[in-house]
Amino acid sequence: MPFTQPNRFAFTASSIKAHAPSASGLYGIFNTTRWIYIGESNDIQQDLLEHLGPSNTCIKRCHPTGFTFELQPGPFRMVRQSLLIRELGTLCNGKDGLKG
Q1: Do 59 and 51 contact (CB within 8 A), yes or no?
Q2: If DSSP codes are grouped into helix, strand and coil, which group holds residue 26?
Q3: Other beta carbons less than 10 A from residue 59's beta carbon
């Protein structure tokens, strides 16, 4: 099952600050053709902003254009993340020292 919320937003600092909550859940980063990365976090907004930084080379090489998220309590995040990674076939989970 894909993300529970069909919302999709631009992968920019201003869009992340406007739309991503500072709450527990999962997020997906994508480009026009593929899912790039699925993450889980206590603070979705903070993690997405960190992915804009210089250290996430795999994500940058894939030219991200957008993100989505779903709220999820802490105990269920990692299980849900694994299911989404398997279902969506991400390009960067586990590469270049990224979380997840």
Answers
A1: yes
A2: strand
A3: 22
**Calpha distance 73→11 (Å, rounded):** 24
Q: Do 51 and 37 meet the contact criterion of CB atoms below 8 Å apart?
A: yes
Q: Please say whether the beta carbons of 38 and 1 come within 8 A.
A: no
Q: Which fold has domain 9-88?
A: GIY-YIG endonuclease (3.40.1440)
The values of phi and psi at residue 29, to 5°, are -110, 135
Contacts of 86 (CB under 8 A, 6+ apart): none
Mean pLDDT by 10 residues, the chain (100 residues): 85 98 97 96 97 86 96 92 94 65
Torsion of the alpha carbons at 92, 26, 82 and 79, rounded to the nearest 10: 160
Question: Is the pTM higher than 0.85?
Answer: yes
Task: Please tell me the distance from the alpha carbon of residue 5 to that of residue 98, in angstroms, as a whole number.
Answer: 24
